[in-house]
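Researcher: Structure for this, please.
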Amino acid sequence: MFVPGRATILHADLDAFFASVEQRDHRRLRGRPVVVGVGVVLSASYEARAYGVRTAMGGAQARRLCPHALVVSPRMSAYSEASKAVFEVFEQTSPLVEGLSIDEAFLDVRGLERIAGTPSEIAAKLRSDVADHVGLPITVGVARTKFLAKVASGVAKPDGLLVVPPDGELAFLHPLPVERLWGVGPATAGRLHGRGLKTVGQVAQITETALESMLGRAAGRHLHALAHNRDPRPVHVGRRRRSIGSQHALGRAPRSAAAVDTVVVGLVDRVTRRMRAARRVGRTVVLRLRFGDFSRATRSHTLPQATAHTQTILAAVRWLLATAMPTIERRGLTL
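Model: Predicted structure, token format:
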């Protein structure tokens, strides 16, 4: 088990990445609501988010919420180049870098104080370097654990820096809403709210056994640990994933087939973008579903050739979803 005694883990996350690249490259877009993606929102600037526009939302809904938004087509090559430039800054900042996706990473800066300053000074310089060399805003959270560093960056967004000292961890974490815990989507949040649990601190007061009976063994243990900021995972350098995936909690409200398809399009786009950014291809497409009665199912299909092509993988996922549709219609779909 590895848990540093000091707040030396940084979570660096680019703000509204695709939209920020477009605003950087096109002066007319700066300070205005920008939506990247026509059919599905791939990224929304913070000016557009102020109107309720969110990633993976259907384009028509986004335009209804923000009629004056400037909609632009994605430029994947520009985003890939920007990501490479940012990761060069990460690697110049610390030898311990774990990339999570095209636009975020964990860095461990322990042992660098003599040559680079305190973790908060290193984080401030990282933000300055990304702004100066790449021209993009980035938010950094600093904490003793990976979980809390990521929570801190989320709280500090956009374009912010937040350091959580070891002696103030629970004072920072416990007042936050339960949605800040990893793994808590709309469905889990609804179940916690139904028991009167609205904050992380309230979850922390519940025994692990009670959480297990409420949410299931794995989820109960997971949330109990996070509510007490127990996260022993170190920063992994050069970690190469055997699979790349993404998920989206739908909640318990009924969804039309078109609404589910919109979510699927967004998930496939996100996964294939990450594959291309990592220069990875794959053959086996796996669709995991969770139904309204909390049962689960997995469907998979192996393609003739390995690919990272969005439309090819999307077609496979749509076929897998169609095979599961009778079950979805009977039980409902929550994930």
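Researcher: Any notable elements?
Model: The chain has four domains: 9-14+77-167, 17-76, 174-227, 257-331. The chain has 14 helices and ten strands.
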